[in-house]
Fold these 2 entries.
Entry 1:
Amino acid sequence: MVATAAEKKLYVDGEWIETGEWVEVRSPFDGSLVARVAKAGAAEARAAVDAAARAMADPLPAHKRAEILVRVAGYLGKRHEEAARIICAEAGKPLKAARVEAARAMSTFTMAAVEARTLAGDVIPMDGTQAGEGKLAFTVRHPIGVVGAISPFNFPLNLVAHKIAPALAAGCAVVLKPASQTPLSALLLAELMAEAGLPPGWLNVLVGPAAEIGDVLVADERVKLLTFTGSGPVGWKLRERAPRKRVNLELGNATPVIVEADADVAAAAAKLAGNAFSFAGQSCISVQRIYVQRAAYDAFLAAFLPCVEALKVGDPADDDTDVGPLIDRANRDRVLEWIEEARAAGAEILAGGALDGELLRPTVLGNAAPDLKVSCDEVFGPLCTVSAYDSLDEAIALANGTRFGLQAGIFTASLKTALRAANELEFGGVVVNEAPTFRADQMPYGGVKDSGNTREGPAWAVREMTEERLVVVQL
Ligand code: NAP
């Protein structure tokens, strides 16, 4: 944890401001004060939207936007360890995982710079119909307007990067509201953007009451797009409240993975053990439901459970910790209740199921019925279920049997089986022979069903953040 608690200001219109009120950031591991951040309210939110609108009145050419993005990627490289330690302190994410996140944020900025330089429209084949003969037509992409961005606690650096880097690539100014528990990574990015030469107003970071800041972003007509990553109820409500805006939602999942008997079962077990419990399962694509073909079930558990037991639970700031705390005690106690509900309904606790000091041990449940919370809701904790199935039809039906559809996986040696699963799994992404927690930052990433309505990844996000304008020329 950091030695002394820092005081951080808000970043609005290129200035670092105080408001006289503070939000405390406390360590999810031991409750110690990590920092105090100036608290914004509706007035600061309105000032931020004004600043963003003013900034956009003086557009930045694409090459300048790209240069700033590349510079930020470089600064993130230089300050990688500091960024990882900030993530670790405010989110309780083990340093190992925090370092991976900090490196990924560099990729997000790098790929966004590529998009800034190459963003272009299309030429329309006008003589394809009689009506178009004698005309030339093409589209150009214009920035959609001010972007309101709301981000969650679990990837406080890289998911903020996934909002602000594509927005700048697209030529949009941003008003960002990071999660109140984890504002420090976002403020670090604001510092790096300013150092990289971003003019005032293009990025504004507000920390404070979500509903108050959210209301301003919803109400102000100059905010043309809301990009939200977080929980379903908050996200869908936001969309309902802003029918005239583009509202892009990246929401939760109850990530399933199928392990066929022809797969390399030991390799699958090792990968899945790491990816069910990294950051205590608090990733939207943390492995939650493992379906193993019956013939391989015993062999899978024999390989999987020792890998789970070998995970080191402890202080996230220790270099060798694999599993740290949940974001707060309420969430830890909620997961404990879900475990108890499953146990009472006949599920078998194959590992964990209890606290180790204040921390919840990695928990594996066997024989969990499909209608239990652990099987159909998003656990967002260090827990997974392992169930046997007989046919691929049954496995696909089980995997599809929740309201979520973000990412799923299958391990198999058969190309035919893999492609069938890819076709029939109702998810935004299907990962073959790798944990479904895999994400590289240039991929299109997003869900169907209750998991969302958009794709992030700079190439996709910049398209969302721009409007196509058609130009028709009579020749
Ligand atoms: P959350 O509670 O929904 O919070 C997300 C953000 O929304 C925070 O900044 C929060 O602010 C803000 N917020 C809360 N109420 C609001 C309101 N009424 N108006 C406007 N903003 C509001 O989610 P979380 O617990 O931080 O994150 C966990 C969830 O995110 C999980 O469901 C996870 O699956 C999902 N997630 C999805 C993806 C993806 O890419 N699909 C990635 C990561 C996480 P405060 O912090 O101030 O309350």
Entry 2:
Amino acid sequence: MSEPTNVLCERHGRVALVTISRPEKRNALNGATRGQLVAILDDLGADPEVRVVVLTGAGDKAFVAGADISEFEGRSPIDQFRVMSGRTVFDAVDRFPKPVIAALNGFTLGGGCELAMACDIRLAADTAKLGQPEVNLGIIPGGGGTQRLPRLVGTGAAYKLLFTGELIGADEALRIGLVDEVVPAAELRARALSLAASIAQKSPVALQLIKEAVRASLRVPLDEGLRQETTLFGLAFSSEDKAEGVAAFLGKRAAEFTGR
Ligand code: COA
């Protein structure tokens, strides 16, 4: 019997819409789903026709309601360590060489909130609810939540979410900086695809180098980040995209970027 397909992928021109699809389990991330998501991202990362990825959840209830809690039962500490120390979905999204937009279409909890935070931009439906409820299970976030959340929202707001396990609505998430835009639920998919399409027209070289530089800003001291930016700026000058972008501006025409 073949594996169930828990992750769907549709092309919309240069945009890939990736949908985590276990709606009956609120799109909770079990091992099969995590493996499929990483494999799809590997394919999309290597495909030059794909410039931007939108990540969302199936149905209208959840983006991702967290790790699949049923897999926690009976799992030994060393098994859990191995699950988390292999290549994770969080790493696969964070290191993905192209922009990834999360379209949060409902519950975005635990590992789902961590997955959203690993994405580059977060759009939320006005119906979305976000939180890190791990504390209610007697555990802590293990997909980067204790690190990315305070960087995004500040220490106090992060502690409030992490200590209480309370869920917040999309507007509150926007207020604290956990999401970047809130749109009516019925318009979320179209808005995410149109934002992705506008980014997909840009130079893939520049997008990749921007992502590399911004990732550095979250990891290294300012001086080192500035040095990395200078190096990446120089690297951009070696690209055909730079030659095309400059020539198109000077020639008063639209640029056609190839990603080389
Ligand atoms: N892991 C495994 N199963 C999950 C799940 C998760 N994280 N989240 C939801 N499900 C399952 C439920 O067990 C239920 O399965 P069942 O129909 O076989 O009983 C199904 O999804 C629907 O969930 P239900 O609770 O009935 O839906 P709801 O819309 O009333 O509530 C949530 C949705 C997301 C608020 C609720 O399911 C929830 O709190 N989930 C756990 C969230 C969490 O703690 N995540 C962090 C994990 S570390």
